[in-house]
Automatic annotation (TrEMBL):
Residues 7-189 form the Ketoreductase domain. It holds the Pfam family adh_short. SMART domains: PKS_KR. It comes from the Bacteria. This is NADP-dependent 3-hydroxy acid dehydrogenase YdfG. Belongs to the short-chain dehydrogenases/reductases (SDR) family. InterPro entries: KR_dom, NAD(P)-bd_dom_sf, Sc_DH/Rdtase_CS, SDR_fam. It comes from Paenibacillus forsythiae. Keywords: Oxidoreductase.
Length: 245
């Protein structure tokens, strides 16, 4: 993976799951990674593990729902490495429920994290990438961003939005600024995503299928593949799902 070597990569939601797996895989292949999440102690442990393996990593406590936090994250990365090559907007939540349960606060949280968080990340790095005339923004959508299922209406809406934002970014920036935009759409993956479900009905369903999920490293490998392609090649979308679902 020679095109990953020495690239400066910001990863949100990096304290577990896909974000953690991606940070470790990219660092193993020579990338300089900046991990961001709210759980500072967990970030420190992952960074220590990466450094013990010979990798180059830092962490920043940041909440993607804060535009200010995302600006500080980008500024830290620039001050540390002098450039930003890749942003991986990975942070996301999925407290699914029936619309009739009226879990309005959870709807708001999904919109804030899954949509605004992606936009705040883009806003934080886009000026730098435009100045560099290069960069790569990878947004995590979902198979739910292509198909709506019962009890996933709001989550699906946020992930459809991620696809729309990503395509708009590609159309606006790739031809002139050479900034690549990629959507990664995981299916069921063994992460903490299901842990935030509060609806008893949905939690019962999740408990039945959670062991069918694939490893977060399967998603990390898809992300690494997109990054590793030469600068003249843009991988627009990759969907990765369990064979059995």
């Amino acid at each position: 993976m020679e095109n990953i070597q020495s690239k400066v990569v910001i990863i949100t939601g990096a304290s577990s799951g896909i974000g953690e797996a991606t940070a470790k895989l990219l660092a193993q292949n020579g990338a300089k990674v900046v991990l961001a999440a709210r759980r500072e102690e967990r970030l420190h442990a992952i960074v220590d593990e990466i450094k013990q393996g010979g990798g180059d990593a830092y962490s920043v406590k940041a909440d993607v729902v804060s535009a200010e936090d995302m600006q500080k994250l980008a500024k830290f990365t620039l001050n540390t490495y002098g450039r930003i090559d890749v942003l991986i907007n990975n942070a996301g939540i999925m407290p699914n429920s029936n619309l009739s349960e009226l879990r309005v606060e959870e709807w708001d949280q999904m919109i804030d994290v899954n949509i605004k968080g992606v936009l705040y990340g883009i806003a934080a790095v886009l000026p730098t990438m435009r100045e560099q005339q290069s960069g790569h923004i990878i947004n995590l959508s979902s198979t739910a961003g292509y198909h709506v299922a019962p009890r996933s209406a709001v989550y699906s809406a946020t992930k459809f939005a991620v696809r729309a934002i990503s395509e708009g970014l590609r159309l606006e920036e790739s031809p002139t600024s050479h900034i690549r935009s990629t959507v990664i759409a995981p299916g069921l993956t063994r992460t903490e995503l299901l842990d935030r479900i509060t609806s008893p009905e949905v939690q019962a369903i999740a408990n039945k299928i959670k062991d069918m999920g694939i490893s977060p490293y399967s998603i990390a490998k898809a992300i690494a593949f997109a990054i590793n392609e030469p600068d003249d090649t843009l991988i627009s979308e990759i969907m990765v799902r369990p064979t059995v679902l």
